[in-house]
Amino acid sequence: MSRVWRLHTKPKVSVKNKLETKVANELIKRKIVAIGWTLREDIYNELTATGKNELEEDEKSIKDDFEKYKKIIEKNNYETIKGEKKSFFNGKVNPNLIRLNNLKKDDLIWIRSKGKYHLGRVTEKSHYLYAYRDSQKNSDILKLGINNQFTDIDWCEVGSESDIPGRILIAFYQKGTLIEIDEKSVLDISQILYNKRDNYYKIPNKIVNNKKNFYDLLSPNDCEDLLYFYLYHKFKYIVIPSTNKINTQNYEFVMLNSNNRDEKIYIQVKNGYSKGSDLYLEDYQKLDGKVYLLTTAGNIYETKTKKKLLQIAFKQNYEFEEIGSTKNNNKIYAINPEALYEFAKRAYKDETILMPQSILQWFKYLEEEKE
Fold first, then answer.
1. Record's superkingdom (predicted)?
2. Do residue 190 and residue 226 come from a single domain?
3. What does the pLDDT look like over 254-278, one tens digit per residue?
């Protein structure tokens, strides 16, 4: 079964040489996936001339044999100027390199370059290659820190952030050079997007239309917009644009009641399956207006210390439930993510409901429900 990966393209060497913005384009041009941990960094400059010569001879033996690279890393007798015997990277092969070497045919890799997202497919010719050469032709490889390569990748450009499923965008926020996004919905949508070019994967170009898949397709910004347009549709609340600041701690933005400009409404939204998706009631006690909380897959707790879980049993067809109040006795509500998903489905079919295309676009990839 194919897998989906996300690659950050900022090896330490490229950052040191102020070339990190060129890495992704170089990967695309050379049709490779590549990462750092080359043998010309770490302890290389500490070696004696003899030690460097020894390394360079060992380096030439690697070519496309990853096991030889591992042996060099684990070797503990390179002679340093200080008369010590040392190994590269403390004798341990970086886990990212092991993952790189374990890429399989038809795996897909996401990378980002200057606001554009690209998707690469591992082909039948793809294999590990250690590009050690010092020739002028390959001098950029050393400067960019892309010696450890996986070759013959078939790249295609997918688009900008608005064209990319939310779960994939979230993977770019996570640490780790090369990580697997181990979710079926991500594999399905990645293959569908790759198929736009040549229909390579023999799969249905739709995924199951359910709540989890829908929210996986939405970016964090999409989720905020969805809740906003729901509240506008239901209550005609209007957003104050200047309150939508990145450094806001406990809410996404502030809205006003269109019938009473003194009535404020605060919202907080968390999308996805992670520890960061949880919300805590105590964070909203000091706000001077109504509060609407949405977590699409997390939990809502009373406090961060005792972590007492609020058991929210949404009544049938209820779109939100009152779960507490602020110190000024303004109500705090939890939004039902299932009901919000149903609202989005209605908006897709009903053009009288205001909804941005960035949200509606994903329904073309969701399988129509059978009557």
1. Bacteria
2. no
3. 999 999 999 999 999 999 766 678 9
